[in-house]
Write a structure and sequence with these properties.
Beta Polymerase, domain 2, four-stranded mixed sheet, 6 helices, 8 strands, alpha+beta, two-stranded antiparallel sheet, globular
Length: 155
């Protein structure tokens, strides 16, 4: 993971009051399970003003006119996911408001955790486990097993 860019983005989200929660590989790391990842996966609350704040936050980190292409209509529509790749291409941000019918921002259980002196919002270990155990990706199964072992989740 691009540590500096990830922390800058998260600090900007906090500064702008974006309602978000982290999931995926960064969430695993924040829960103490080291895992390499090249992206930051976030759910954002599906409201236009929140998406406007998201754009403002990203603009404060990246000088990139393509941030304007992150449209509320996309994140509020039938396929509510956008991938943003900053100009340097060092990593990318997957931004979702819903993941199929299984997960939506409002239904995620989250908690606040410390990320090097910055309080951030992250899905709980149980939620992350549930998200990962039922996918078709073998890497997710391994992540789910590590979460199960670390936090004592039963089958």
């Amino acid at each position: 993971m691009d540590y500096d860019s990830t922390r800058q983005v998260l600090a900007a989200l906090e500064q702008e009051g974006v309602r978000y929660t982290i999931f995926g590989g960064v969430a695993l790391n924040l829960h103490g399970l080291a895992r390499a990842t090249e992206d930051l996966d976030i759910f954002v609350e599906p409201e236009r003003d929140n998406i406007d704040r998201l754009q403002t936050a990203l603009r404060s980190v990246f000088d990139d006119p393509h941030i304007d292409e992150i449209q509320a209509d996309d994140l509020l529509g039938d396929y509510p996911a956008v991938q943003y790749v900053p100009p340097d291409g060092s990593f990318h941000i997957d931004i979702l408001t819903r993941l199929g019918e299984a997960y939506s921002f409002d239904g995620l259980k989250s908690q606040r955790l410390d990320f090097d002196g910055l309080e951030v919002t992250v899905v709980t270990p149980q939620t992350l486990y549930e998200m990962k155990k039922g996918t078709v990706r073998p890497g997710d199964w391994g992540d789910a097993e590590r979460l199960r072992q670390r936090f004592g989740f039963g089958e």
